C-alpha cells in the first residue's frame, strides 16, 4: 500500500517512495529508499518538503489509528504524480552572471549528489535513474540559457577528489552551451546535455587506483581506462528512454578526427557531430581541472593549446563554435591589461570575444594588491585591452576563484 503522509510522521524503517515537492527542494537524489539514518529524517524536516509517499509493503507503516493524507495501490499513478511535481518550472529569462551564480551553485550541489548516485547504481549493477537525470539536464540547460557564464564556469570548480562526478556535470553544461551556439534545436540540445552527463559513466567500473593514479599510467592501465566508453555504453544500451545519439556520445567521445582515437578508431565525418562535440567539451574540462597528478591549466591557456589540436584530434569547425560559446578568454582566466594591472575574467561579451569583463585587483607597477574594480573592455569609452595571458601558477593568488565566482571547489 502506498500512503501519503506528513513529514512529521516519518520514522526509521519507513520506505520513502517519493517526495511531494519540486526536485531541487528536497535533499535527496534518490526517490526510493528505506529511512535507516536519523540524520536523513532531520534533513527532510529541515527542508521545505511537507509531505512524502511511503510504501508499506517495503517498510514500516504509520502507527495504528493514524490516518494517512491519501493512499493507493497504483505505483504507476504515484510515479507520474511525483515526476509532475518534481519537474522544474522552466525559466530561461536572461540574468546577469552574479544573479545566476546562486542558482547555478544549487544545481551543482544537487548534480554532484545525482552523479554520485548514478555511479553507485552502475557499480552495483543496478539500472541508472535516467528519468531523474533528465530533470537534472533540464536544470542545467535552463541555467545555461539564462546566463552561460555561471553554470559552465562554476561546474569547472572542483577538487581532485570529486573530479569524476563534477566533470560529468561540467561537460553536460559545456555541451548545452555548445549546442546552443551551433543552433541545435531543443531536443538536440537535451541530447547533448544528457550525453555529457552520462559520457563517463563507464568509469564506475574502473578501479580507483587506476582512475586516481598520481603518476603516468602503464600501457596495461591505460587499456583499463580505454574500456570505459564501451562499459558505459553496455550499461545504458537497453534503456529505452535514451536517444541513440546519447549512447553515441558515451561510446565515441574519445575518437579523434585523424582516426587515432578509441574505441573504434573512427575518422573525420565518420564521427557523429555529437561525439565530436563531446570530445571537445571533455578535453576542455579535463585540462582545466585539478587532477590527482596535475594542476589544471588556466582556461585561456587551455583554449590556446586546444587550437593546436584541431589538426588531428579535434574538429576545427566545432572548436570554433566552442570558442564562441566559452570565450577566447574564458571566465576565470588570469590576464594582464595594457595599464599593467592584472585581473581575472568574470564575464563574456559574446559580440566582442577579445573584450570580456575583467576584475582587476593587482598592480604590476606598484607590485601590490589594489581594491578590485570591474572593467568592461567592450565599452566604447574603455581604453584598456588585454595584452597577455598570465599563469596562475606563477602568481599563486590564493583567492583567485572566489574573486570571480565567490565560491571555492570545496563548495561542491
TrEMBL record:
InterPro entries documented for this protein: DUF3391, HD/PDEase_dom, HD_domain, HD_GYP_dom, HDIG_dom
Domain of life of the source: Bacteria
Domain HD-GYP: 143-338
Membrane-spanning ranges: none
Protein name per the record: Nucleotidyltransferase with HDIG domain
Organism: Rhodoferax ferrireducens
SUPFAM superfamilies per record: HD-domain/PDEase-like
HD domain mapped to chain residues: 164-287
